[in-house]
Design a protein that fits this description.
Strand content: over 45%
Distance between the termini: 29 Å
Mean pLDDT: 89
Order of helices and strands: HHEEEEEEEEEEHEEEEEEEEEE
Radius of gyration: 24 Å
Helix content: under 10%
Low-confidence stretches: none
Shape: elongated
Largest sheet: 14 strands, antiparallel, barrel
Number of strands: 20
Length: 415
């Protein structure tokens, strides 16, 4: 997800130095001190993705199979192709995030909070390939969702007429579901047939703090800074892996049906950002943000798992997926056309903390990104409607490219 607030996203997610609406609970809680009265806002943001890769999805055998690097399908026959062929996927509504926020001003300080999507990932993949060694058709299917919501409470306080500070607490609720299924069907010798099925159901929660400051030099210039602590989230639940059939080539495994409760340590990295806003006129605003996210301690679920009852295929894992720090910048603009209509546009360029070898059409990360959005606000009495449309594109060093199409709408009412 690009962030919170259709107005802020329409300005390219460059909002730390402005932060003058309820979405400041995400961008910079110090900006809440600028709000007057009380109100609420609700909306939805949705993104559809097209993912294109040169090598399809891996189907590795034996020691070449490494979930730590994004492998999802294990091969149990040395004659199987090492990749599926389908290299393009369309994910409609892959990220659809609702939000609801409320705020109320009490003179020098403002209280705000709500529920909103922080981020997540999604994948859906299906393909068939052919193993000529045993005249077999191989079908692979993946469906995975990693979603994170925030229940937030924040306060912004005006220290002086120029300086404001803010603090917020997020309770981060994380849900992870993964389904991987593979069928190997030989037309000439059914004894080679096997079915592989893995199911993961886990969830957990953690807390992070969000600190911010905002300094307004004058009516034209303001600067802001934020820091988020990140959070360690223990995802608890059950995992089941079954392997049935396969005759002699599966051999030592026989038929497997492993099932166990367990947990995964999910690391949501810390981040910081700075931003500046410039208003050359009462109608025109320019914004710029720079951000860094620390993914160096990130634990991908496939690389970190502890099971109460390990089995033949269900093994404890404690690896280092090799994620790293990422940085990005955003620029945005807003123009008040008249008392009713406001126009917006923005651009984001952000590197990824994901290693290139981790990327394929079935993993649920998308590498380096660029985003271009346009938006509009419509004011009517005590209601304000904000909309945006945009596109996101990027890729990795391993030839995985993606393009996403974004849409968002929100409604705000002053009370």
């Amino acid at each position: 997800m690009e962030g919170l607030g259709i107005r802020a996203l329409g300005m390219g997610s460059a909002f730390i130095g402005l932060a003058d609406d309820a979405s400041a609970v995400f961008w910079n809680p110090a900006g809440l001190s600028q709000l007057k009265g009380s109100g609420y806002t609700f909306g939805v943001y949705s993104m559809s993705a097209v993912v294109d890769a040169k090598n399809g999805v891996s189907n590795n055998f034996g020691p070449d199979y490494d979930p730590n690097k994004g492998d999802l399908f294990p091969a149990f026959n040395v004659g199987e192709p090492d990749h599926f062929d389908d290299d393009k996927e369309l994910w409609l509504g892959a990220a659809t995030m609702p939000s609801f926020l409320m705020f109320k001003n009490y003179g020098r300080y403002t209280l705000a909070g709500g529920v909103f999507g922080v981020g997540g990932a999604y994948s859906s993949y299906n393909d068939k390939i052919y193993d000529s060694t045993h005249n077999a058709e191989i079908e692979g299917d993946v469906f995975a969702v990693l979603g994170m919501m925030s229940v937030n409470g924040s306060i912004g306080y005006k220290v002086t007429e120029k300086l404001s500070v803010g603090f917020g607490v997020d309770m981060l609720i994380n849900i992870w579901r993964g389904d991987v299924k593979k069928d190997y069907i030989s037309a000439s010798d059914p004894s080679w047939n096997y079915d592989y099925d893995a199911k993961i159901r886990k969830w957990g929660y953690g807390f992070q703090g969000n600190f911010g400051m905002l300094y307004k030099f004058n009516e034209q210039w303001s600067v802001g800074a934020t820091y988020r602590t990140g959070s360690n989230i223990t995802l608890k639940g059950d995992t089941e892996v079954s392997l049935k059939g396969g005759g002699d080539f599966i051999g030592a495994f026989g038929e497997v049906d492993d099932k166990s409760d367990g947990h995964t340590d999910f690391e949501y990295g810390s981040s910081w950002g700075i931003g500046v806003a410039y208003k050359p006129t009462n109608k025109l605003t320019f914004t710029y943000d720079y951000r860094e996210n620390d993914w160096s301690d990130f634990n991908w679920p496939g690389s970190n798992a502890k099971f109460d009852d390990p089995g033949i295929l269900l093994q404890n894992a404690d690896g280092d997926p090799g994620w790293h720090r990422a940085h990005g910048y955003s620029i945005g603009t807003e123009y008040l056309l008249n008392k009713t209509i406001t126009l917006r546009a923005g651009y984001t360029n952000e590197s990824s903390g994901v290693p290139s070898e981790f990327e394929n059409p079935a993993t649920i990360t998308l590498g380096d990104i660029q985003i271009a959005n346009v938006g509009m606000g419509i004011q009517y009495d005590t209601w304000k409607v904000d909309v945006l449309v945009g596109t996101m594109w990027g890729g990795t060093g391993k030839g995985v490219d993606h393009r996403c199409y974004d849409f968002g709408i929100s409604f705000m009412r002053m009370l």
